[in-house]
User: Fold this.
Amino acid sequence: MIEAKNVIKKYGSVTALDDFSVEIPKGKIGILGPNGAGKSTFVKIALGLITANSGKVTVLGENLDKHSVDIRRKIGYMPEHDCIPNHMSGVEFLIEMGLVSGMDTSSATQRTHEILGHLQMGEEKYRKIEEYSGGMRQKIKLAQGLIHGPDIIFLDEPTSGLDPKARQEMLDTINGLTEISNTNVLLSTHILQDVEMVCDHVIIINNGKLQMKENVKELMKRQSDFIQVRVGGDIDGFVDILKSKEITVTTDGRILRVPYVSDQTFQQIIDAAVDNKCQLYEMERSKVTMDNIYLEVVE
Amino acid sequence: MKDKAQVSEKFAIYDAELTTRPKIVIGMGLRGFFSLLKLNKKGVWNLALIFLIYLWSIVFFVLMAGEGNVYPCEEMSSEFKYCQPIAYYGDMGLGGVRLFLVTLAAIASGGLIANDMNDKSLHLYLSRPISRLDYLIARFIPIFLLLIFVTVVPNMITFMTQWSSSGLEFDWIQNHKWLMFDIIVQGLFYSASYSIIGLTFSTLINREYRAAGAFFLFVYGTNIIVELFHLFVNDDRVLLLSIAHLLDIVSFEIYGAEYYFTSAGVLKGIELANLEIFGALTLIIGGCGLFVNWMISQMEENK
Amino acid sequence: MSEVILENVTKNYGNVQGISNISVEIKPGLTGILGPNGAGKSTMMKMVLGLSRPSIGHVSVMGNDPFTNWKQRNKIGFVPEYDCFYEHMSGLDYVAYFLQMHNYTLQEANEMARVSLAELGLEDAMDRKIRTYSRGMRQKTKVARAAVFNPDIFVLDEPFQGADPTTRHLLMMKMKQWADEGKTIMISSHILHDIENLTDQIILINNGKMLASGNRHEIRNLMNNIPRQIHVTPIKNTNLRKLAKRLLDESWVRATRIDKENDELIIETDSAETFYLELPRIIKKEKIEVKRINSEDDSLDSLYTKLVGGAQWK
Assistant:
């Protein structure tokens, strides 16, 4: 879908992208990386807003050197910061955005109402945007990126500043709208759980270089060598029983971590719980989380 | 939860037919133009000023060219006579029209780019399939059309009136075709120049009303300072530093006429080389264009 | 000592409700304060900081009323949600400036600020102007400014907002360390996962009212009107049906369902405590080896949706 080869981009003496190469497959891709790692530079180059000092970028099979403006017919962009005019109504704004993308008035209007319907916005779509809640503004921002039916949409921190419910709604909306319309997603975020919930693939950029490109499902299948256990009642007694079986348990105060040797370990934990007459709330081979992977790769 | 069953087929296969870039830009420009003339809080002022300009032009046209008017005149020579009231009316007519024109240009252009920069929707426009230049043209069209509406159109009306008062002879137009051409060129020139300067202020100061105020003060402020300065320095090149004077000088050049202006109640002619005049013009307009382009490119880079 | 106690606290701004009748005791350690935007989290934090006074009720911080005992304010470290910088200052000057306001000499102030900023990983950036800082660095500077006074109580309003995962991790480490040192830390965040990583102790507010407070697992136990769903995965999937049948014999099991996709058994129970106590025994007796016992519905996410989202839970 997007291909970059040996891309170098410098701002004065600062190198934002340093011999950066990546091949991004179709689907939903999360881009992770620390602040200033080159994520947004890469996105801006792929949008054709800035050009690289050297290297080759192809988006949807088109070379960006020649078609940097026209490529944006097939791309939608949802910026991070608040960037929607307050003095218009949601409908007016989306129609304007559709027209600026090159749609004609009637299909822009039809499409606007269709998307707003999917975003579950009712009468409030005719009200001025300044009266909208944070979650609604964010939805309008998403809608303007999808209005012209792009093949790819870039989402820059789509959930920043939203409360948990609005965030969940936003992620559901992104999933729903893009899955059905078969839109490819490029999601740049600092919240790693967003990537877990939305993306098929994840790439990590650091210091202007590609650090990792993996399938999210594969990553999430990785398991660590610990079983996390939570018991009620007499915790010390439980730990002692395991100790007598030569199993050392570590704890961070909330959860016990039992080293995994074989599937036999599970039975030993259950036996210990029965012997100690305590509740066994939780017993699970602890999974590798996106946080662990990210920190491992970046540091 | 999102109900997936709700998402219809139509949404899934949506494939927009997108028009070409020029059409997008013209469409944006025309929508901008009509929104300047809308009967809302801002549009009312534009409409009022347009009305005022027309009224002013007609009143002074009637005062100066009305057939029944007899003014006391001094015979300067056998061909040339100087009529004090007509000179006053001329100055007031032109001066007034220019005052309103600059005000109109200021309040109409102030918001064009400033509003986009202020609410940051500029980023959204730039992420659309139009280039930076396309965007600028789209924002130039509304103010340009509006100014044409108050420069070329009233002047052409005057021209037509002259024609009809000269007895509707086609010869008259043929004999004055260069005059008609000059009227159009001069109108376009004023409109374009003030539009570009207006857009520059709109970009420089990203608050609509401040941008409009700054534009107005800049044009008239430099005008006054330069005229005062001219009294002491007595070098005509100083006049090129004032936008209003520079544009007037150029428009006199368009008519092929000698430029003169009233300073401290005295009529003064000037002597300047073409190179100086057009050099200054290119510098100012070109500088404005480059500056706006640079500002927007900065916005592009910094998200 | 470093406890925060709110007793029947109500705060109104004119006729607008801030918080209403909240009574809670916040003990040393980490406490997550959760709720939608505008729920009253910031109002509650302002009370603790002594920036505003409750309309009804009492607030006590370390045994004193924070509004009148303003001298103890440097014992409370506050990280506001919004940026409050002098952009032209360097991070070092900024932190030192606040120390100087509290009668430290310039030299002491600089020394202390340097240590505090370095602890948060800003060694290289502390001499640069704040204007050039990224979001993550700004958050770290704000935390450093709060921590430099070595306060007993931290009030952190959205400290992770906009920070990248590395910064987030570093800040969390610091917070856990402070909690271990016996400090009281109140922290609000919209990212429930972050709070889940940090602590089990939460306060949930909505519409100015407190919906729940305490350990999240205990909170879930109290909500016994909603049956608990527990996922159990046997090592051999042939045992799924056997286990399901066996469990249905027990009076405390409401329903069992086999999820073929994940080879797991979903058990619904009204009496979770009995279930957790009895299940290991049954497993042991029936010799069904099990590799996973987990209840996703006492995760913070599902707790939040159940309590805040009303009827719309999964």
